[in-house]
Amino acid sequence: MRRELVERVIACADYIIETKNTIREAAKKFQVSKSTVHKDLQKRLIEISPEKYEQISEIFQSHIEVRHIRGGQSTKNKYLLKKQES
């Protein structure tokens, strides 16, 4: 693997481990697509650092467990904002 690719994968992994942010937020931070971040952390990271891969997997699992709550909160905020504008 190219050196800059390995550095990006490690940087993304470290960022998510430190902040517990989502793939979407990491993609914005590193100015790459969500697909790229996902591939970096699900396919490439296991070859580079299995320990970090385990940590990332736990974080992603927790994101999956709360995504329905986040979605509901987002919808609620959307309609509250709409109501305030009226």
Overview of this protein structure:
There is one protein chain. With 86 residues, the protein is mainly alpha-helical. It has one domain. It has helices at residues 3-19, 23-30, 34-48, 50-85.
Key terms:
4 helices, 86 residues
What percent strand?
A: under 5%
Largest sheet: none
Q: How many angstroms does the end-to-end distance come to?
A: 54 Å
**Averaged pLDDT:** 93
Number of domains: 1
Helical content class: over 70%
Unreliable residue runs: none
Described by the principal axes of the CA atoms, the overall outline is elongated
Would you report the number of β strands? 0
- Number of separate helices: 4
Write down the Rg.
Answer: 16 Å
Oligomer: single chain
SSE string: HHHH
- Structural category: mainly alpha
What's this, in brief?
This protein is mostly helical and 86 residues long.
SSE topology:
Elements: H1 3-19, H2 23-30, H3 34-48, H4 50-85
Helix pairs in contact: 1-3, 1-4, 2-3, 3-4
